[in-house]
Write a structure and sequence with these properties.
GO terms for molecular function: D-cysteine desulfhydrase activity. This protein has 289 residues and is of the alpha/beta class. The chain is 39% helix and 17% strand. It is built from eleven helices and nine strands. Strand 2, helix 2 and strand 3 form a beta-alpha-beta unit.
Length: 289
Amino acid sequence: MEGKDVRLFVKRLDLIHPLASGNKFYKLKYNLETAQQSGHDTVLTFGGAFSNHIFATAAAAKAEGLKSIGIIRGENTSQLNATLQQAQANGMVLSFMDRKTYRTKHEAQHIDQLREQFGRFFLIPEGGTNALAIKGTTEILTSEDQHMDYLCCSIGTGGTIAGMINAAKPHQKVLGFSSLKGNFIHQELLDLLETHHIGFQNKYELFTNYHFGGYAKHKPELITFIKKFKKETGIPLDPVYTGKLFYGVVDKIKSGYFPSGSSILLIHSGGLQGISGFNQRFNETLETK
């Protein structure tokens, strides 16, 4: 960046696949493979009405010849948004669950009820984070990234950063920028790393002050940043995850967080499908390409 002795690189996971892009490609890779190997022809998962995970699961399942079911948080509406329309177009059966029940959706009784309703299926958790997802996200970093000093990603359920911590070399530090309000992510990630036996001594740091109001919330300065970044670099960002990540990294560069000569890698984790719905809801003009 101008005036700062650091080098900034972007790994464009959003370009991997036209629909199942970004970190979702890696999270779903081994889940769908295991579903097929275990004789399942249907996957079932959960998500909100604008969920990148729902969107990607529908597309990836269709590409692999699998049926998909999406349990959507909230009440059914007569007009589906663009995310759910595309999921449905890719063959996903949508079923809406009230918010109270949704909070306990992974309890055995609810899963049993879903099996009674839909029959046999392979369960993928909300956001896709499980051992198979972490196996996939460990592959995000490749040999060409080994010269990087800092590896930066956004955080939702923690599956992406867990895989990156698992893959990071001893000289590298993984920086996570949470898109959710609150400090609970520190313990959630710690639990995730310990559960999956991932070594993490001095390998990561989390930042929880770039959420702009909370998950799926935004403020004018974030939108201004996203538009300016697109104009200057040609790289589109979304307001839920990548916009907050890139804003946070640039802010950290300006504040002198990174030592002189640092090489910084930002993971563009996709999520651009949600921009059309965002624009419609908030009368905005963010670009998707």
